[in-house]
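Postdoc handover notes: sequence design on the structure in folder B. Input tokens:
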């Protein structure tokens, strides 16, 4: 069973930066495409971006493009989400998720999330 644990959330002022981490255990991390999602209060969970398992290619939601960078360290079984120029509307719970190679488009494993609060 794959376990994902996010960390690095917290309170930051608008315009600030945060680095979120997601540590994976219980599986073959290098074979997972890793995604980041977020859920703002009262809203549905939305896609932030992902990094693929084979080439470490990244893809970002339009709302986050230019402000976030996803990276991974397969030796540490960890994926990162660097967020810059944060806005109050970026407030929410941020989740990482894993999609095993060959499993289609569904993310099979999810972390518990880490809270990000951006003050104005």
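Designed sequence:
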């Amino acid at each position: 069973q794959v376990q994902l644990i996010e960390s690095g959330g917290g309170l930051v002022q608008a315009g600030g930066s945060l680095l979120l981490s997601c540590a994976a255990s219980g599986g073959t991390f290098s074979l997972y495409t890793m995604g980041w999602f977020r859920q703002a209060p009262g809203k549905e969970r939305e896609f932030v971006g992902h990094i693929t398992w084979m080439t470490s290619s990244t893809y970002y939601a339009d709302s986050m493009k230019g402000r976030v960078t996803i990276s991974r360290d397969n030796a540490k079984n960890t994926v990162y989400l660097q967020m810059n120029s944060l806005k109050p509307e970026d407030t929410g719970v941020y989740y990482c998720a894993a999609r095993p190679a060959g499993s289609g488009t569904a993310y099979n494993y999810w972390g518990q999330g880490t809270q990000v609060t951006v003050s104005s």
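Context for whoever picks this up: The longest strand covers residues 92-100. Don't rerun without checking with the PI first.
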